[in-house]
Please model this.
Amino acid sequence: MDLNDQQTRKLKLAAWLFGSFVALTVLVVAGWTRSLDDAWNSAMANTEMSWLVGVAEAFHRVGAVPLALPAAVLVAVAFLGMRRWWIAGAWIVMVGGAQILSSTTKLLIGRDRPLDALVHESSAAYPSGHATVSGAAMAIGLALLLGLVWTNRFRLFVSVGVVYAVAMAWSRTYLRVHWLTDVVGGLVLGTAVVLVVASALSGRSSRRWLRWFPSAEPRPGSSTRDQ
Model:
């Protein structure tokens, strides 16, 4: 598969995800997801176990700004240290773009959080910032970028990233600090942002950038099929 095909596929999927996010947002605002959200919230409360609460709280701390922001900076510095300038830039755009869109949507929608939350959050509920940024943008985004550096481990990176993102989303509902549709919307939005940025790296423009940064050229024998 050539670079243009990769770019087209990523953009089509990103467009589909953005459309799905808009549709879900409309349903949330209209109140049509209330019964589903209430049922999931009740299920999380009825299955509450102390050790699972501990796991969920660990994800809560890891995904919060005091830890997530330094982690994002360290990843950018690491890519810069490897002289992967274009990948470092893509990482910054992924994380920053997801954060901006998540925060803006929260302000516009202003959805209330569940009343029986096990942790305190002051911002609006929809979409989940943990799921959007720490889950989708940082975990799945980092997996895709690492897959560009080590193409032979692409599927492994993406698998780990997806599992982490889903676990982060689950933890938010298990702590009952978010509704189910909050985390679904967050994962969809964050993944869409990641795919838009990834499509730019798969396009012809990325090849032109590589000529300015020889150290970022694919190593001999590497394959782009998995990218």
Notes: The mean pLDDT is 88. The CA atoms of residues 2 and 20 lie 27 Å apart. The radius of gyration is 18 Å. The chain has one domain: 3-216.
